[in-house]
Amino acid sequence: MGDSPDRSVRGMLALNLKRARAQRGLSLSELSRRSKIGKATLSQLESGTGNPTIETVFSLSRVLEMPISDLLDTRPPAGLRVVRAKDVEVLSGDAVDLRPLQRIESGDAVFEIYDQQVRAGCRRDSLGHVGTEHTIVQAGRLGVSVDGHEVELEPGDYVGFDAALPHSYSAQEETVRSVLLLQYRPDQRLRPHASGPPDGERVGCGD
């Protein structure tokens, strides 16, 4: 009996990263330069032995100009689908934990739904990435800064913005849980990379 494909986050990222890099004619060295991710780290990710973080995946999404779900999965679901939180592999960073729940394709557009948790006393900063970002807070108070504009959201509040703008999420006294929806236009999918500044993801947590 042959080996079954590795459907883990690590396995899917390895498969899709190699494919995307080949489609764009990028060497490991060039991808490393643009993303500011070490060549050795990229090599491990492509071999399926690396440990991908949120910061790494968002940086690759920006540099390769493709939806996160194009890096993490390729199989759109059919019919009824129930996703149990306990069965979903968590993609973690230094400040945020993401659980990918669903990828929705409508025509040429793509939507990704995540369960997002920002840890208490932590802040995640991003220089931006492709897509439009939508967030609905479920529990806690979430600080959001978008291109210098700051707001604080309570449970039930919504915010949406162009994800290419510099933005950050922060949680103060308690962990914040929210629903994150990333929306991609047809022109933001699988197009050749245009030269531009690489992504920068910065995180910090209080004592």
UniProtKB/TrEMBL annotation:
Q: Domain named HTH cro/C1-type: which ranges?
A: 17-71
The UniProt keywords, alphabetically, are: DNA-binding
Read off the Gene3D superfamilies from this record: Jelly Rolls, lambda repressor-like DNA-binding domains
Region described as Disordered: spans on this chain: 188-207
Q: Which domain of life is it from?
A: Bacteria
Matching SMART domains: HTH_XRE
Q: What is this protein called?
A: XRE family transcriptional regulator
Originating species: Streptomyces axinellae
